[in-house]
């Protein structure tokens, strides 16, 4: 099956053996009758497994070309499950420019439990090796990074991970499996905030993991059930529904993203524009190699370069909504320093480029002319 067919049919054989409904039924149930103790039809209790969630988990695995999918109540719940694979004394090397909530989970929860993190700029993969020692267990990669749109060479990082017998996890939220499939590049674990492009309609918070290795899948399944951060059947249905149009939404996100990035670059009041599709983006060649398109996420700064200038722009926008989150059909604008990345200390933030004037756009699938006119009037 090719990708566009998978979004609609992947892992969805026989979704409703009872009546043949085309969409998977929403099994709004906590428990399942047994004919004799242990005599059930594959489901016992909905924390351990639910048929609607199972449909979604199979769909996620299919999209990422993986063997096993697991769905969680949020992206962070999915990351939390991955981190519970490790024990005090273990060390993790993470991308330094990453989603603020991931950073908060790493430093405010898991560091306190004895796991050590190294936050490393990975645009040059070789730099990772100096942080590896006998306690290192995992490399955590986010690419493109949020919000600076850096690109990390997954295949190169994977070579380093394999050489030192480490797991490699990739947060594939920004790219989605439509643009980038990290398992094929050597990753062991794919993580998604399905809240974003997979759901695609800004109406559900959800997370997912995909892995190939059975033993790793079993460990993660144990954690999913034992810790219990699962998603409900209604939300599973919504994400399954969202996934059915992932390919056409992503195509439009990419087209509109390119148009908006080029417009911003041509605007005399705009200073830097961060978008991996530009040929002079430092890792444009890697983006070209590992992604099939450049997506709809763009960050930029203005020449005025003040908090006030950025605030004025985001307040003036009419079609772009000032809001956290990304990846929905509607265009959103965010101010990372005060919103998504406020949990990262200012000095650390600014080291990676998250200055006070930075604005991040999630370019939606509206008409490109309307989006550009809106930005034009707001930037002034
Ligand atoms: C939103 C996001 C997360 C966290 O996911 P939630 O669903 O909000 O818990 C993790 N990584 C990235 C890149 C994100 O954008």
Please tell me about this protein's structure.
Helices cover 36% and strands 15% of the residues. The chain has 380 residues and is an alpha/beta fold. The protein has 2 domains: 241 residues, Type I PLP-dependent aspartate aminotransferase-like (Major domain) (Aspartate Aminotransferase, domain 2); 134 residues, Aspartate Aminotransferase, domain 1. Helix 4 links the parallel strand 2 and strand 3. The model has no long low-confidence stretch (mean pLDDT 96). The structure holds pyridoxal-5'-phosphate. The site of pyridoxal-5'-phosphate has 16 residues, from helix 3 and helix 4.
Distinctive features:
Aspartate Aminotransferase, domain 1, Aspartate Aminotransferase, domain 2, 36% helix, single chain, 2 domains, alpha/beta, 380 residues, 5-stranded mixed sheet
What does the main sheet amount to? 7 strands, mixed
CATH topology of the largest domain: Aspartate Aminotransferase, domain 2
| Overall mean pLDDT | 96
The largest sheet has its strands arranged as 1-7-6-5-4-2-3
List segments where confidence is low: pLDDT < 50 over at least 5 consecutive residues: none
CATH class of the largest domain: Alpha Beta
Task: Provide the CATH architecture of the largest domain.
Answer: 3-Layer(aba) Sandwich
Number of domains: 2
What is the H/E order? HHEHEHEEHEHEEHHHEHEHEEHEH
Computed Rg = 21 Å
How much of the sequence lies in strands comes to: 15-25%
User: How many helical stretches?
Assistant: 13
Number of strands: 12
Q: Can you identify the CATH superfamily of the largest domain?
A: Type I PLP-dependent aspartate aminotransferase-like (Major domain)
The general outline is globular
Q: Helicity, in percent? A: 25-40%
């Amino acid at each position: 099956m090719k990708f566009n067919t998978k979004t609609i049919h992947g892992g969805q054989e026989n979704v409703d053996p009872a009546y043949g409904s085309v969409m998977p039924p929403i099994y709004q149930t906590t428990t399942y009758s047994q004919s004799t103790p242990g005599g059930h039809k594959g489901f016992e209790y909905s924390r351990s497994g639910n048929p609607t969630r199972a449909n979604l988990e199979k769909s996620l695995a299919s999209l990422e070309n993986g063997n096993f999918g697991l769905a969680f109540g949020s992206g962070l719940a999915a990351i939390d499950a991955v981190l519970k694979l490790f024990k005090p004394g273990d060390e993790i090397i993470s991308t330094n420019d990453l989603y603020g909530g991931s950073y908060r989970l790493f430093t405010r929860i898991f560091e306190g439990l004895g796991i050590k993190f190294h936050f490393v700029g990975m645009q040059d993969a070789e730099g990772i090796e100096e942080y590896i020692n006998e306690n290192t267990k995992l490399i955590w990669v986010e690419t493109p990074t949020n919000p600076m749109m850096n690109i990390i060479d997954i295949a190169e990082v994977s070579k380093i991970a394999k050489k030192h017998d480490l797991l490699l996890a990739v947060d594939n939220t920004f790219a989605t499996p439509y643009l980038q499939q990290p398992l094929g590049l050597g990753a062991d674990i794919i993580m998604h905030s399905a809240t974003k492009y997979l759901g695609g309609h800004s109406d559900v918070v959800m997370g997912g993991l995909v892995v190939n290795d059975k033993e790793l899948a079993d460990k993660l399944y144990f954690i999913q059930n034992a810790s219990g951060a699962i998603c409900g059947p209604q939300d599973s249905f919504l994400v399954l529904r969202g996934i059915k149009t992932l390919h056409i939404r992503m195509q439009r996100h990419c087209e509109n993203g390119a148009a908006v990035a080029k417009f911003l670059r041509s605007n005399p009041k705009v200073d830097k524009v961060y978008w991996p599709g530009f040929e002079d983006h430092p890792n444009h060649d890697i983006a070209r190699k590992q992604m099939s398109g450049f997506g709809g996420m763009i960050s930029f700064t203005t020449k005025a370069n003040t908090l006030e200038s950025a605030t004025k722009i985001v307040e003036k926008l009419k079609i772009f909504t000032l809001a956290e989150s990304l990846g929905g059909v509607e265009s959103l604008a965010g101010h990372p320093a005060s919103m998504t990345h406020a949990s990262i200390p200012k000095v650390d933030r600014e080291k990676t480029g998250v200055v006070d004037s930075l604005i991040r756009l999630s370019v939606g699938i509206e008409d490109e002319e309307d989006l550009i006119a809106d930005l034009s009037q707001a930037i002034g």
